[in-house]
Amino acid sequence: MAPQTMFEKIWDSHVVREEPGKPSLLYVDLHLVHEVTSPQAFDGLRLNSRRVRRLDRTVAVADHNVPTNNRDKPLEDEVSKAQLEAMQRNADEFGLEYFDMFSEKQGIVHVIGPEQGRTQPGMIIVCGDSHTATHGAVGAMAFGIGTSEVEHVLATQCIWQAKPKTMEVRVEGSLANGVTPKDVILAVIGKIGTSGGIGHAIEYTGSVFRSMSMEGRMTVCNMSIEAGARTGMVAPDETTFAYLKGREHAPQGAEWDAAVERWAALRTDPGAQFDALVELDGSEAAPQVTWGTNPAQTLPVDGRVPMADSFDSSQEQAAVEKALAYMGLSGGERIQDIAVDTVFIGSCTNSRIEDLRAAAAIASGKKKADSVRALVVPGSWAVKRQAEEEGLDRVFSEAGFEWRDAGCSMCLAMNPDRLSPGERSASTSNRNFEGRQGPGGRTHLVSPPMAAAAAIAGRFVDVREWN
Amino acid sequence: MEPFTKHAGKVVPYDMPNVDTDQIIPARFLKKIDRVGFGELLFYELRYEEDGSPKPGFTLNDPRYAGGSVLVSGPQFGIGSSREHAPWAIQQYGFRAVIAPSFGDIFRSNCYQNGLLPIVLSPAEVDSIIARAQEIDGYEVTVDLEAQEVRDAHGFSASFEIDPFRKENLVQGLDDIGLTLRREEDIASFERARG
Fold first, then answer.
1. Residues of B with CB below 8 A from A435's CB?
2. Chain A touched by B18 (CB under 8 Å)
3. Does residue B49 lie in a domain region?
4. Residue B75 exposure: Cα atoms within 13 Å on the Cβ side
5. What residues in A contact B75, CB-CB < 8 Å?
6. Is B1 a member of any domain?
7. How many domains does chain B have?
8. Are A148 and B23 a contacting pair at CB < 8 A?
9. Is B88 helix (H, G, I), strand (E, B) or coil?
């Protein structure tokens, strides 16, 4: 057989039906559901007297709307409350396994999937959320879907997909001290743009990803969509197996050994061809800070914000002018002269234990700047418990950072955590779109250590020079 | 789903690249649990002042483009979140088609699920439609899905590609789920084979 990429192997093993020139009907191994993109899907099922086909392959969690403090008090936001109640009602009526905000297994959907060992190599995983590619870190094909497709998967356990092209993103070398997976993926997006990956499935290869932890690989795969790709993946290896072994839903005993053998065979065969190749030198990568209103508008921390007239086309110039005006920048400023008001450490991109350790290492023994509000929102209760066992909560509290409960929080400001108009954040989340963290809020995307350092200095600083 | 065969309507130009789904509909409006009422929330921050009055200068508030039903915009339209509320908002405002040089993948498939037609034309063709919409009062185009063509009464025409499966479903207004459930035997045998 011709050599195949990992993506092709996963695709081929999930085809329920295919006909030339048409999308394929693919089988879904794991469907993750949350409260925001599912209520209309359950309504559709009800309307047509349909049931959930595979309850054993479906799990739901409350994450987008949940407050990150005072959970024992009634929700202030009536509309959020109604949405969370609808999720509970739908879970009860259709029989779904569901983690509400009081469950010790609750957390951001893309944090709890891998953490509970549900996310496994070779799977097709979908969720009504564009950051589903996160699960690709274990060597799965995971992608975001809309609400109509959520309804479709609930009813049929399948999804129609046109086969995307493949793209290899290869980063060789080794990362300098202070340079994190977040900086690597921002640099990739900066290079290929928000549309570079449209219509493609990405596989991340090269020594930088090979030597990355699972948490780091999740950060990278998470942001595939910001480069336009619905899915991104890393081949499973010893790091993957060590991460999964013993987790609640991972195979046990003899089944484990058989699974590892199967998973190891998923790797892209030598000589397999990708449709596109993007290469980056990891040794050259620097800590990144976004300056504009999409994640491709990123710069090394030692850079200067660009001027609109440095771009070629009039359309680009107009777009950059609009972004600068929104961000309250004039162009030409040094990144390190930009002061921040709020620091947010959290989100499905950067809220895992390793992210919190990296931020705590910077904050340890220091105090945040008086002018800064700093929030640390662990990705799940499990992450929170582990961080507390390691004493990270005390490090943050002593530095003046608020230590919160698990949820999506200020990444998209559906709960009470949000920016005020004109407020500027250093955020470890994934999108700096206009209004993303609250109407008029100004977001700069950074890594967890860069965010922690910005909280202490009150402005962006180069963590490579931190002491 | 309402079938889509051919539609003639006024063009609303929005000449911006990277119109992400957070701009199309901000996350705080995603808390509703039904499918209606999103049209007035479309492009909320761009469209309304803080007091809720229309922002002058934004294309949806321009009287020339009132009642438009074909939205034309820059590359990477609909990037970002998977929220289907974005196509719902566009459709409920009154749009039947969106024309751009490229689309976010998830947004594009969400459009098909709702009978909203996303059309990819070349940057030059898109620029040409935008320029005509700005110059010609009440400028209209006809979107002909069966012929896979966009044309106007002033000599412009451009053809577009569409997946034949998507086209068939749009033309017939077919429900994907009903279609898939006809494949029940295939799904059941796949499940049996995997154990």
1. 22-23, 26, 45
2. yes
3. yes
4. 13
5. 195
6. no
7. 1
8. no
9. helix
